[in-house]
Write a structure and sequence with these properties.
The complex is a heterotrimer of chains A (about 350), B (about 350) and C (about 325). Chain A has about 350 residues and is of the alpha/beta class. Chain A is about 30% helix and about 20% strand. The longest helix of chain A has 18 residues. Classes of the chains: A alpha/beta (about 350), B alpha/beta (about 350), C mainly alpha (about 325). Chain C: Keywords: Cell membrane, Membrane, Transmembrane, Transmembrane helix, Transport.
Chain lengths: ~350, ~350, ~325
């Protein structure tokens, strides 16, 4: 059980909650019975720190490795090399008790709320049993505890939802139930993997606000994984962002900074591609600059040098040959050879007030 | 505010390509009748891109199905007409339907992956589909035609034609579906959440392709989605649906800058955006309406911040706000641009 | 309690399942109490052979003048016993082995899968015959065992496959992430998803078991019970020269009808069972804002004078 102090200073703890260093993750694709399986690199040189009560947003398309990263942090996958430290202790060398604490401290909220709930069990069972098993509640106060956690996610009136099956609830309600379940374990970190992608756009903001509120009120760190940059700002107002491409983190830094002053060409491309709910502004936006119609490369056929060079409009010879190392640029860290030479990024073609 | 149909002031107009009048679609379920589309009146502007916006359960998918006459049991079109030129789609015979579908209107579905036959090469599928409708071209000519379409969606025609669907990525399949839909050069192209399963960059790419196709061919397009930002980016007109009703329709700029229906205002306010103040975003309170209950008053009254007694008793009529802007609401509310 | 109440409600709502349940109940009552109430007189009475239904003989008489109704009632006991017992053994065996294979994995899984493969590729009936010859069947229990010992393959394979797929489902993964004990995952998360399947398999297997038992009896490998419906049918068929002697039509029709009715009721009941035990399939949803009676009229029409949404350019 964690000690809940009312410390709002998010950078208080010196030791980060989660620390990943030089993480590598590979998958093996079998090439038939007689050939060596092909090694596919899913994560490369991942360096990421999450502090207590911090919000980190990971942005990437499908195929960028963001889900693999989530699985590694959740403990479902073991990285091939690199270190993964939880509160300063390396995961491998944890004792059984320490491992248990680590497991309960990180809770996951998945994308598909329908698949993440047992269709045969009502809410009181799905939410209550884990609490009983981990001794966060007793038989006597179970109902009270479940009500507490349902109220925390605005599933009220709670009596209404206690006996519901998943298929009797709407998508948004199920997603809140997932968050409630994660909350019931008193986590220090909630890993939200595309929690709003399967929900109608008009409902997304409320779920994102809920996550942001939980972070503020309970000092729970949040790792929010998404492919939709527009939603990033709603959770991570005061947080950090990491942009992933083909298994690497190509840019990372303070969220507001990075979004207003993006460096990496991929991030710039993303920013020009996200639709804006404003017809005038969206038509004033500069056109997406990507190299021809190149699709996202397959990880079985990883580009040489910089992984983004096949689609990058600024691509130079060095980009095709040499893999760039992450360098500090202002307050962000960018993985690009040309980071000092890139022109200033402008989202709109004219000076648009209020942008 | 009584509006009459006589108020259709059409100056230098083009006749709308599709005129929907008083359309109702009901689903006959074991525990009641669900009204999915409720007295919809709509003129689809010719040669423009119209966005059809609504959450799940708003009736937009059913409306699109009704126009294509693909509403299946237990659903039925119970009232109204859909005029395409002179023909009423609702009363077409099976034979006429087969000609109408894909030749006059075509559709690009959500998650295109499941629409292609996995056992045939794409070339075979294109040819087969074409010949099923028209027999005026030889196979060679059809292939040339298809190659042009594929190039218009920025695909490598030679490679694509020889491949099987499973060899293509999601984005490529979606583009193939757009090419497919254009095969017989339909007058209207319907798109149902065409980019939901795709990432942002591919989505932007497909939008630009759609815009190009639209500019070159002048095809009328109707894009159905729950993402209002997509509509803002791509469309010329917007139709907002709620609980089976059309609550507002208008020119895209009018709709975003002066939304008159509270639901439209709330939708715009709820959409996450890259720009603008984060605090201004707010969710829409309440839950979706129960479409099986008997309707009393405005369907949105339960969730509307401006609702009062008249809203709860009397169903609002559609009134004209300006030349290209109509709304179904009792109140006179003009929203702010956000 | 909730489960039982909603179970009956679902059965009632699904008319077909309800009918099946009633008929099945009728047979169960007949099998349990019938033989105590209805006498059995198997003395031959040739004068009365092939009688049509009358007050004295509600279903007519057979080729030796015995009352058909009495025979059906007495025969129902052995038919039902054998069917249900054999099915029960099959389900227990199939489920146990399938679950073991699915949960344990590794070498146990491989061994059991091999056994299943073999079972499914060989013709079972001849082997059952051979077993019946080697171990002469003296009573119902043994018959049930013989029937079950080779028919569990399909069920085990399905159970194993279901468990393997359930293990990968997200709601199970999240239990692992939450660190919940294995015991909980197996019994509280995965198994409830299999129970509806098992229940309906049990009911349907009864059909198969009855059919097989008939085969064994006809070939004399199982204890001969003259009132067993299959025996009735086979004797009647022989005596009536397979139906060419039209007088014996009733004699053949009655046991056939009894079989058909029983099997139909089993199938209908199984359908309803599946629906009743699976909350997702239940037609009624308690998520209605207010409990109004069924509305048979759609929404009020009020927009006849409504305007048209259009662009008047």
């Amino acid at each position: 059980m964690t000690d809940k102090t009312n410390v709002n200073d998010k950078t208080d703890a010196k030791v980060p909650l989660v620390e990943l260093n030089n993480l590598e993750m590979n998958f093996y694709k079998s090439k038939g019975m007689f050939r060596k399986p092909q090694e596919l690199n899913a994560l490369h040189n991942i360096n990421l720190k999450i502090h207590n009560g911090e919000i980190v947003v990971v942005v990437g398309e499908s195929g960028s490795g963001k889900t693999t990263l989530a699985n590694v942090i959740a403990g479902l996958l073991t990285p091939v090399s690199g270190t993964y430290k939880f509160k300063g202790k390396e995961i491998h060398s944890m004792t059984k008790e320490e491992a248990n604490v680590y497991r309960s401290s990180i809770q996951v909220v998945q994308q598909d709320s329908y698949a993440a709930l047992n269709p045969m069990r009502t809410m009181i069972k799905s939410l209550g049993d884990p609490m009983l098993l981990k001794k966060y509640a007793t038989k006597d106060n179970l109902l009270e505890k479940v009500n507490e956690v349902l109220e925390a996610v605005d599933l009220t009136p709670t009596e209404h939802f206690i006996n519901k099956y998943p298929h009797q609830m709407s998508g948004g309600q199920r997603q809140r139930a997932l968050i409630a379940r994660a909350l019931s374990m008193n986590p220090e970190l909630i890993l939200a993997d595309e929690p709003v992608s399967m929900i109608d756009v008009s409902l997304r903001v409320s779920i994102l606000n809920l996550l942001a509120r939980l972070n503020e009120e309970r000092n729970i760190a949040i790792l929010y994984i998404t492919h939709d940059l527009a939603t990033a700002r709603y959770v991570g107002k005061n947080g950090r962002i990491a942009v992933m491409y083909l298994g690497e983190i190509v840019e990372t830094g303070d969220l507001q900074e990075v979004l207003s002053n993006p460096q990496h060409p991929y991030l710039r491309a993303l920013l020009t591609a996200v639709p804006i709910p404003n017809p005038r502004l969206s038509r004033k936006r500069k056109e997406l600059q990507l190299n021809a119609s190149s699709e996202l490369p397959d990880i079985s056929n990883m580009p040489s040098g910089c992984r983004f060079h096949t689609r990058c409009m600024y691509c130079k010879d060095i980009c095709k040959v040499k893999h760039p190392e992450p360098v500090k640029h202002g307050s962000s860290i960018v993985t690009c050879h040309l980071v000092d030479e890139l022109p200033k990024f402008e989202l709109f073609t004219e000076d648009v007030a209020g942008a | 505010m009584q509006a009459s149909e006589k108020k259709q002031v059409q100056t230098q107009d083009v006749e709308p390509i599709l005129k929907i009048r008083d359309l109702c679609v009901d689903y006959f379920l074991p525990n009641g009748i669900l009204r999915a589309v409720n007295h919809v009146n709509l003129d689809v502007p010719t040669g423009k891109i119209t966005g059809l916006v609504g959450e799940s359960g708003s009736g937009k998918t059913t409306l699109t199905s009704a126009i294509l006459r693909t509403v299946s049991n237990p659903g039925k079109i119970t009232k109204g007409s859909i005029l395409f030129g002179e023909k009423d789609i609702v009363s077409l015979s099976d034979k006429e339907l087969r000609e109408y579908r894909w030749r006059d209107v075509a559709m690009v579905f959500q998650a295109a992956q499941n629409c292609l036959n996995p056992t045939m090469t794409l070339q075979e599928q294109f040819i087969e589909t074409y010949l099923a409708h028209k027999k005026d071209m030889s196979e060679k000519e059809i292939i040339e035609h298809v190659k042009k379409l594929l190039r218009a969606v920025r695909l490598d025609a030679d490679r694509v034609l020889k491949s099987y669907p499973h060899e293509m990525s999601g984005g490529m399949k979606q583009r193939i579906m757009i090419a497919f839909a254009q095969l017989l050069e339909p007058e209207i192209l319907f798109l149902d959440e065409p980019t939901t399963a795709l990432d942002v960059i591919t989505q932007d790419y497909i939008f630009r392709i759609l815009k190009t196709v639209h500019q070159i061919k002048g095809t009328t397009m109707v894009l159905s989605t729950h993402d209002i930002a997509v509509v803002a980016t791509l469309c010329d007109y917007m139709v907002v649906m709620y609980g089976g009703n059309i609550v507002e329709f208008g020119n895209i700029y009018d709709m975003f800058e002066q939304p008159c229906h509270p639901y439209t205002q709330l939708l715009i306010q709820a959409a996450p955006s890259l720009i603008g103040d984060v605090k201004e975003r707010a969710a829409i309170p309440g839950t979706a309406p129960d479409l099986m209950q008997e309707r009393k008053g405005c369907i949105f009254a339960d969730r509307c911040p401006y609702a009062d007694d008249i809203c709860r008793q009397v169903e609002p009529e559609t009134r004209v706000v300006s030349e290209e802007h109509t709304v179904a609401c009792h109140k006179e509310i003009r929203g702010k641009a956000i | 309690m909730e489960v039982i109440k909603s179970f009956f409600k679902t059965m009632y709502d699904n008319k077909q399942a309800f009918v099946g349940m009633i008929i099945l109940l009728f047979f169960v009552v007949m099998a349990t109490f019938g033989p105590m109430v209805v006498p059995l007189d198997l003395s031959t009475d040739f004068l009365n052979r092939y009688q049509w239904p009358s007050f004295a003989h509600p279903l007519g008489t057979d080729y030796v003048g015995n009352d058909l109704f009495q025979q059906i009632v007495h025969g129902s006991r052995s038919v039902l016993y054998i069917g249900l017992l054999a099915s029960l053994f099959t389900v227990i065996l199939g489920f146990a082995l399938g679950a073991l294979a699915g949960f344990a994995g590794g070498i146990i899984d491989k061994v059991i899968s091999l056994m299943i493969q073999i079972l499914l590729s060989v013709p079972i009936f001849p082997i059952q015959l051979i077993i019946a010859v080697i171990f002469p069947i003296r009573n119902v229990i043994m018959l049930a065992v013989v029937l079950a010992c080779l028919s569990w393959g399909l069920l085990a394979r399905n159970v194993r496959a279901t468990i393997l797929s359930l293990k990968q489902r997200e709601f199970v993964l999240i239990c692992r992430i939450m660190g919940l004990p294995k015991r909980h995952i197996i019994f509280k998360e995965i198994l409830p998803n299999i129970t509806p399947y098992l229940a309906s398999v049990f009911v349907l297997n009864t059909n198969a078991a009855i059919a097989t038992s008939v085969g064994l009896m006809m070939l004399g490998m199982a204890p001969y019970e003259p009132t067993h419906w299959s025996i009735m049918l086979s004797n009647a068929s022989v005596q009536a020269n397979s139906g060419t002697n039209t007088a014996g039509i009733f004699n053949m029709l009655v046991p056939t009808a009894a079989f058909v009715l029983l099997q139909m009721s089993l199938v209908f009941f199984a359908n309803g069972l599946d629906e009743a035990l699976n909350p997702r399939l239940r037609a009624s949803s308690s998520y209605k804002p207010d409990k109004k009676k069924k509305q048979n009229t759609p929404a009020r029409k009020n927009t006849e004078q409504g305007g048209t949404h259009h662009a008047s350019i």
